[in-house]
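cron nightly-structures :: item 1 of 1
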Amino acid sequence: MGHVELLNATVDGPPEAPAIVFVHGFGCGQHMWRHVAPAFESDHRVVLLDLPGSGDAHPSTYDSARHARLEGYRDDLVALLHELDLGPVALVGHSVSAMIAVLVQIAHPELVDRLVLVTPSARYLDDPPYVGGFTASDIDDLLELMSRNHLGWQDPLATLVAGDPTSAAHDELEQAFCRTRPEIAAEFAAVTFRGDNRADLPKVSAPTVVLQAADDSVAPPSAATFVRDAIPGAGLEVIDTRGHCPQLTAPAETIAAIRRSLGAPHP
C-alpha cells in the first residue's frame, strides 16, 4: 500500500497546474480545509491528506515511537510528495503542521516552492523573553486531563482552539477530537505542545508567509511575529477573526490571504 492510500490523499484540479498541498493540524483531518481547498481547484492541483493517526488515515500509519517527534510526520509527508511526483509544491500547514511543513522544506527544498504557515507557533511554552502563550503547568494540566479522562478534554480544548464555545467551529473541533483515538491524541498533543522548532526557522529557504488570526489564544500574535522574524524574508498577514482556525471561521479571508501568499516575491 502506497502513501497516497495510507494517508487517504486526494489530488484534484488541472493535471498541468501548479500543486498546492493543505496539511491539517492536531486532532483534525483534511475535512478542516473543505471551505478553502475547493477555491484553488480551478488553477491548482489541490492535495489533501490525513496525517498518521488522524482522520481516515490507515491505522497502520501511526507509530508511537516514530511519531514522538515531528520529524516522523515530516518523513510521511516527504514520502507522499515523492510518490505523487508533482514537482515543487506550495505547502500550506495549519498549526502544528506549519512546523511539519518547515521541516519538510528544510530537509527537501526541491519539493517545496513556498510555504504558507497558518497560525504557526515554533514553541507553545513561554521561554522569557519569548512568549508562546502557555506555561509548563498549563501544558502539564492539559496532558494530564487527556491521559486520565479520555472523554473530558475535547470540550475545553475545542473551546480554547475555536475561541468561542458557542461557535460552529467549536462543535466541529470537538467532534474531530472525539474521533481521534485517545492515546494517539495524547501523544500528538505532547509532541505539539512541548516541541521547540525555533532553531529550525532560520534554515528555511523558500518564500514564506505567516497567516495569523487576530484573536488566537493558542498561537498568540507574539508567536506569529517570532516565526516571521526568524524566517529569512518571511511576511505576515493578520486575518480579522477569532480562534486558531481561520479556515473555519473566516474562509473567504483565508482564501484571499493564501492567494496573495502564492504571489509573494522570493526573499
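cron nightly-structures :: done
The chain has a mean pLDDT of 91.
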